[in-house]
Give the backbone structure.
Amino acid sequence: MAEERRQKQCSVVLPTESMKAMAESVGVGQLQEDSCVALSEEVSYRIKEIAQDALKFMHHGKRRKLTTSDVDNALKLKNVEPLYGFQSQEFIPFRFASGGGRELHFYEEKEVDLSDIINTPLPRVPLDVSLKAHWLSIEGMQPAIPENPPPATKEQQKSESTEPLKVVKPGQEEEGTIQNKTQGTTATDGKGKEKGMIRLKPRSTHELSVEQQLYYKEITEACVGSCEAKRAEALQSIATDPGLYQMLPRFSTFISEGVRVNVVQNNLALLIYLMRMVKALMDNPTLYLEKYLHELIPAVVTCIVSKQLCLRPDVDNHWALRDFAARLMAQSCKTFSTTTNNIQSRITKTFTKSWLDDKTQWTTRYGCIAGLAELGPDVIKTLILPRLSVEGARIKAVMEGPVVSNIDKIGADHVQSLLLKHCASVIAKIRPQPDNVEQYRSDYGYLGPMLCSHVMKARTQAALQAQQVNRTTLTITQPRPTLSVSQSGLSGSSGPRTPSIIKVPSSLTLMSPRPGTPSQPSPPATKYIVMATSAGAASTQQVYVLYVRYDYDINICLVSKQLTQCLLRKNN
Amino acid sequence: MAAVQGGLVDASEEKDIKTEPSSDGCGNNDTNDARPLSTSPGSNAPGGNAKTSSGSTEEQQTLLAVLQFLKKNNLTESVEILRREAGLPEDSLDLKGSDSSGASSGGSAGGVDGVGVDASALLSRVTVSSSAGVQAPMKTSGEDQPDVNVVLSAYSQQGDPALYETYYSGLKRFIETVLDCHRAELSQVFYPLFVHMYLELVYNNHENEAKSFFEKFSGDQECYYEEDLRVLSSLTKKEHMRGNETLLDFRTSKFVLRISRDSYQLLKRHLQERQNNQIWNIIQEHLYIDIFDGMPRSKSQIDAMSGSLAGEAKRDANKSKVYYGLLKEPEIELPLDDEDEEAENEEGKPKKKKPKKDSMGSKSKKQDPNAPSQTRIPLPELKDSDKLDKIMYMKEATKRIRLGPETLPSICFYSFLNAYQGLTAVDLTDDSSLIAGGFADSTVRVWCVTPKKLRKVKSAADLNLIDKESDDVLERIMDEKTASESKILYGHSGPVYGISFSPDRNYLLSSSEDGTVRLWSLQTFTCLVGYKGHNYPVWDTQFSPHGYYFVSGGHDRVARLWATDHYQPLRMFAGHLADITCTRFHPNSNYVATGSSDRTIRLWDVLTGNCVRIFTGHKGPIHALAFSPNGKFLASGATDGRVLLWDIGHGLMIGELKGHTDTIYALRFSRDGEILASGSMDNTVRLWDSMKAFDDLETDDFTAATGHIHLQDNSQELLLGTYMSKSTPVIHLHFTRRNLLLAAGAYNP
C-alpha cells in the first residue's frame, strides 16, 4: 500500500504536452521531445520543492489548508518573485475545458469595466478581529453552552446505546462526572480507572437539571401554544440545538402521548404541531433518534392513517396533515431503515394491508396511499400502479353512484387527485409515448383518461425543465492553436484529476472579439497555470496543487533555465 | 573498531555543523553572521562574561580560521584588529592558509570547524577521491556554492550501479537471518544506507538504476521517514542535488546509530567476509556508529529514540553537566498587612522604568546544588516595579489552587473571531492582563483582558506640561483619549509567526516572515527596534523569564540570542539541520531549548553557546516546547501528535503522551508543575498528570548511563481530561498565577 503510493510520488511528472503547449503560446513552434522531457522533469522537481516549502508556511500559519500566500512565501524563500494576483481565500478558481483531444484547466479572468467598479457601492467592510472568552471547562467539567461543542456527539450517543459494555474512556468520563454531579450521587467514582475495569454500562441520566427542565417546559409550551412566532422559534431550537440528547426521551414521550390523546379528541391543530416537532427532531443533526423510533413511528403512522383526525372531517383540511406525516414517515424510512429493523418493509406492509381491506374508510385509504406514494417511484410502480383500476372502480362507484354521504365523496375525490398526482409522473417515466386515451382507459380503467392528460402535462413540464437545466455548450475552432471551451460551469475541482496544463493566451479570444461585450473573456496577459494533482496523494498530502506563472515575454527555452538559476543562486 | 572511529570528525561534530548557515546558499549573510560571532566576546556580552582563553591550540586555530575568512572577504582592518587583540604573529595566517587552500571553501568550512586537522583530513579525502579518476564536473562550474561541491564530490566514488541492489538486498537478507536480538539493532542501518546508496546512484547519473533502487526498497523503510523519502523521491537528477537542503543535511552530518558491540561485530564480520566494500565505505564515511557494551536494544527502544533527520544523539552529546536548578528568588520584604493597600494602589499604576542591565548581586544563601550560580549570566537588576510585581505574584500564589488529578483546572477559552484563518501566534502576559495576537496580515494586535483600557503615553509636548512632582505622575502621563480595548501594531511586512511579552509587560516581541524581530513598546504602542540578522522567516521568538535577553529562531537554522539594547545577536546557536520551529528559555535563563524540523530538540548553554543536550525521538517537526516550573523537565509536542517528556539532568526521554490526533501547537505546565496542558490542531485541550509521569520514572544508574529507556505505554492513565472546542484549534495555553488555564485559538467556522 505504502509502496504503491511512494511509487506514484516518484513518478508524478508534468506531461510533456504541457511543455509543448507553453512553448507554442510563446511562439516556439517545434520543441524537441527531448527538451520537453528535460523541461518537464526539471519543472516538476522545482514545483515539488516549492510545494514542500509552502507546507512549512502552512504549518506555521496554524492552518490545515495550503493557501496561495504559502506558495508565494515559499517562492520568496527561494528568491523567486512571488505570483501576484492569485489572492484567493478558499479555492483556486480554475475552470476546466476540453476539446481537440486536450484537457485543460485555466484561470478565468474576465475583462472588467472600471466604471462598473467605480459605480458599484462599496462592499461591506469585513468584520474586525475580536476576542471572546468562554468557559471550556469548569473544574474538569465542560459546561453545555453554545460556545462548546455538543456534550455528546451522535457517534457517542450511538455507541452508548449499542455498545453498553465498552470500557469508559477518559474523554467520555467527563460526561460521567457531569451526570454524577447532577444526580448528586457518588461523585467519587467519576475519575478512577477502577470504573473502567468493572466494565459497567454507564448510567444514563433520568433527571434533568433545573435549566433543562425549564427549557423543556418552555419548548413544549411554545410548540403546542397559540403563538406562531414562539412556536417557530422553539422548533428552530429543537432543530439546531446541539445539547438536546438528554431531553430526547422526554420529547419523544411528549409527542407519543400527545398524539394518543389528541387523536381521541380529534384536535387537528395539536396533531399538526406535534408532527412539526417530530420534523424538527429529525432535522437536528446531533441527535441519535434511533433509540426512540418505537415511540415516534406509531405516532406518525397514527397521523397518517387514523380514521378521523378532526372534529369536522368535511370541512377541516386533515389531508394536509396526512400528507405531511407521510413525508415524515418516508424521511425516517430513508434515514433509519436498516436490514435489522426493516422499518421500510414493515411500514409498507402495514399500509398495503389496510389499503387492500375493502372496509377501510376513505380517510385511511388516503393515508395509506399517501404513505406508500411518498416512499418513492419504485413503491408506486410495484404497489400502486397495479391497483389503479380497482381503485378507479371504487372511486367511480362513489362519484357516480346514487346515494353517498358527502364525506365519502370528498374522500374519494381526494384519493383520486392523490393517485393522479403521484402516478402521473411515474407513468410518464416508464410508459413510452404516445399517450393514447383509449389505451390508458383499458390499462387503468376509470382513472385512465384523467391519468392520460396528467401524464401529458407531466411530460411537457419535464421537457421544459430539461431545457432550462441544459446549459449552453459552444465549441470554437480556430486554425492554431485549437481550443474548445465547454461552458458547463464546472470548477477545476470537479475536473479529472490528471496533471494538466492550462493556458489562456491573450491573442486568442474565446469568441469573436467584438468590442462592447465586456462579458466575454479576453485576458490581458498570457498565463500558464500548471496544475498537477495526484489523486492518491491529494487527500493525504495537500501538496501537489500548485500553479506557476511567467510573464508574457519570457522565452520558453529560457523558462526552465531561469527558474533553475533563480532557485539555485538566490542572491548571487 | 578502529576503522569506524578513524578519520572521523566525531569529536567536533557539533562545530562541524556550524557551517550550515553559510553553506545552505545564503551567501550574502555570511558577513552579517560571522561578525557578531567574532566580536561578541569583546564588545557585546554585557558584563564581559565570555572569556577568551586563547591559550589552547584549538582556540588559536579557530582564530586563525576566522582571520582567514576575514581576509578572504577583504576585511583587512578587521583582520588587523583581531590579530592585534589576539596577539597572533603576522605569518600565522599564511601558514594556515596554505594548509587548506585546496578548495575555495577551505577558509569558511575549516574556519568554523575549529579543528584544522580534521578540516584538512576532510579536504584530503576529497582530493583522493577526485584523483581516483572520477572528476567531479561541478567542481569548476559552481563557484557560488563551493561547499556543496565538496560535499557532493564525496559521492563520486564509483561502483557498478547494477550491483547496488544486490549489495543492499544481500545485506537485507543477512540482517533478516541474524538472531532476533540483533535484528532490530542492525535494521537501523537500512535507512541511512538506503539514502546514501540512492544519492550515490543519482550523483553518478544512473538515473534509472536510482529509480528502480528507490522503488524496490523505499517501502521497507520505517514509516516515520516518509517525509524525507518524499523529498528524496523527487530528487532524480544530479543537477537537483545542488542546493537541496535535505541532501546537504545527509552529507554534512553523519547519521548517528547506537549499536551494541555484539551486533556491530556481527555486521562487520559479514561485510568483510563478503568483501562488500561499497556498503563498508558508506558506513565508514557517512555513518557514525556509537558502540556500547551490553544488551542489544529492543525494537521498541530503538523506535522510541529514532526518527530524527540525522539519527540519534550520540551518548556523549548529552553527558555534559546542565545546571537545571532554579535561581534563588531575590529576597523581597513581604509587605505587612497594613501596607497591602498601598502596594495594591501602586500596582494599579503602569510601570515606566526601563530595565537596567547590571548584574543582580549575590543574594543566595542556600543554593540548589543543580542551580547555576546567580551571576553565571548577568541578569538585569530588579526595579521597584518588578519588586511590586513579585509581591503581587506571591500574594496571588497564596490563593493558588493546588491542582491534581482530583482537582482539575478550569479552562477559559479566548476565541479570536473573524480572524479568517489569519491568526498565527498568541501570547499572554504572566499576570494574564494582556493578550496579543500575531496575524498573517502582518499586524500584531494587543488586547487588554481586564477592564483596564490600553492607553498611550502622551506626546512629548504634552508631557512637558504635567507636574512631575505630583504623586500620580505615572497616571498623568497617560493619554486618556487613546484609551481602547485593543491596539494594532503595524510594522512587519509578512505574517507574524512568533510573539512574546516581556516579563515586565512593557515590551512585546514579534518575529515575522520578513526576517526581522521587532520590539514594541507597550507604553507608546510603537516599534522601538527591528532586529535584523535572520534573512529568512523567523518562526519563533521568546523573552527570557528575567527580561532583557531574548531568543529567536527561524528558517536559517540558527537560533540567535539577543539583548534588547544590542542590535546584533550575542550568541548564535547553530547545529540544527533544518528550520528552527520553536524556541524556549529555561526558567533560570541560563539555557535555551530549540525545536526543529529536523525532529530534534537541542538545549543550548547561553553562557558558552554550546549545545548541551540533543533529544531525538519525535517523528515530525516540533512545534511546542515547555519547561517544567522546577526546571528539571522539558515537554515537547510535534506534528506527530505526541508529547514527549525529557529529563534534562540525565538527558533522557522519560515519557510519551499519546492522544492528540494532529499537530500540537501549545504546551504548558501548571504553576506548580502538577498538570501538563497540551493544545492541538485537533481542537482539543488535553490535561495530563505530569506528577505521575515524573514519579513513575525509574532512573537507575544503568538507564542513566546507557540512555536506554523502557517507556511504559500509560498515556491513557496519565490523561486526565479532553476538552473539545468548537472547530477552534488551540494555539496557545497559559496558566494564570492562580492556576486557571487560559487557552486561545481562532474560530474557523
Q: What stands out?
A: The CA atoms of residues 272 and 280 of chain B lie 8 Å apart.
